[in-house]
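$ ./design --mode recover --in tokens.txt
reading tokens...
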């Protein structure tokens, strides 16, 4: 004990047997205590030090964003996509020093790998400061800083928590915020009947545009950069009760978001008005030898799992791609991927189910009223050794 300040303190009672009783323990009593004895020859002996920890409950933690304290009643924080987010968590008081840790809880149903983002990029990085190595002062509190290198749209509605643990607490305390990630529109276009099915004049056709953005934005259709030929609904549908040949053309979906105009890629709607025979399976006659510029083998295409592939109908032909169902042995339309009016079909993020036989169906150059198989490609999906080992 510090003899200069404590020798007359009434709180300290020294017993004859060498014991020391401290009444009304205070934070200033925290630290190492040591018994010192002196014999008749004035030789001094020191006992092994004893550490006394005086528990003091810390105040609830709170968060700082850009050095400003987050209002506890307004925990929804707007942040732009791909921006960096810096946070700090502070707890005042407390002895010993409380432990602060970080957690990120994504919104339920969010796929971490939807954007091919690594787990490391999705998690907070705790910033280690050199000053953290300094001796901790009693009752000075604790502070932890963290950084999210980039905020992605998958972080929207995610909860970030700073969790505090301390010996005086039976349950953990936390301070949290919710991320309101603002991101630009992405478009998904679908069609009924599905892509790959030839559209004959007079049938019912629907185009659907789904827009994913925050804040939400309304989809609007355009045809050849003008108004569409039929009324459109506010939920992204463009319905043709009886499609006509004059409805053919380039369609795109647009949306206004935060005072900026965004647009999907163009989709060419082709309406057939000659009597094409679609009542039976097309004749399987290969009229080309290469599926695409990426394929050195005739009719064979090998793609890595998670990769991309593009199929090309023969040059100069007007056709679209279909997938041969291995169970029914019949052709079916392609509900995903990207088709273009030039006879291309592209797949991204290829999975095992994408393997199989693909056929380009179009009009025969010899008989305009008959559909034929203009191209057949067998697609094989392979994974590298590292992927196989992980799975």
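writing sequence...
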């Amino acid at each position: 004990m510090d003899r200069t300040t404590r020798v007359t303190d009434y709180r300290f009672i020294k017993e004859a047997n060498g014991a020391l009783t401290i009444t009304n323990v205070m934070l200033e009593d925290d630290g190492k205590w040591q018994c010192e004895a002196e014999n008749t020859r004035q030789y001094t002996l020191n006992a092994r030090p004893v550490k006394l920890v005086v528990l003091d409950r810390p105040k609830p933690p709170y968060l700082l964003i850009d050095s400003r304290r987050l209002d506890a009643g307004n925990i929804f924080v707007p942040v732009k996509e791909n921006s960096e987010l810096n946070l700090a968590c502070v707890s005042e008081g407390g002895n010993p020093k409380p432990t602060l840790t970080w957690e990120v809880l994504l919104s339920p149903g969010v796929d971490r790998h939807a954007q091919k983002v690594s787990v490391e990029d999705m998690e907070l990085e705790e910033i280690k400061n050199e000053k953290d190595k300094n001796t901790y002062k009693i009752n000075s509190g604790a502070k932890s800083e963290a950084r999210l290198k980039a905020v992605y749209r998958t972080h929207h509605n995610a909860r970030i928590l700073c969790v505090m643990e301390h010996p005086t607490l039976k349950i953990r305390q936390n301070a949290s915020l919710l991320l309101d990630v603002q991101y630009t529109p992405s478009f998904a276009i679908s069609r009924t009947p599905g892509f790959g099915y030839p559209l004959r004049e007079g049938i019912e056709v629907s185009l659907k545009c789904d827009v994913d953005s925050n804040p939400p934005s309304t989809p609007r259709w355009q045809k050849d950069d003008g108004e569409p030929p039929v009324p459109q609904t506010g939920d992204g549908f463009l319905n043709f009760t009886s499609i006509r040949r004059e409805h053919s053309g380039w369609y795109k979906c647009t949306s206004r978001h935060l005072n900026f105009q965004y647009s999907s890629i163009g989709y060419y709607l082709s309406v057939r008005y000659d009597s094409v025979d679609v009542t039976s399976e097309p004749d399987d006659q290969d009229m080309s030898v290469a599926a695409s510029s990426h394929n050195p083998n005739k009719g064979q295409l090998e793609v890595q799992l998670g990769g991309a592939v593009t199929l090309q109908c023969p040059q100069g032909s007007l056709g679209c791609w279909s997938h041969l169902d291995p169970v029914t042995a019949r052709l079916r339309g392609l509900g995903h991927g990207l088709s273009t009016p030039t006879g291309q079909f592209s797949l991204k993020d290829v999975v095992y189910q994408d393997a199989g036989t693909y056929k380009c169906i179009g009009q025969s150059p010899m008989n305009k009223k008959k559909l034929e198989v203009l191209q057949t490609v067998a697609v094989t999906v392979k994974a590298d050794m590292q992927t196989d080992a992980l799975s």
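exit 0
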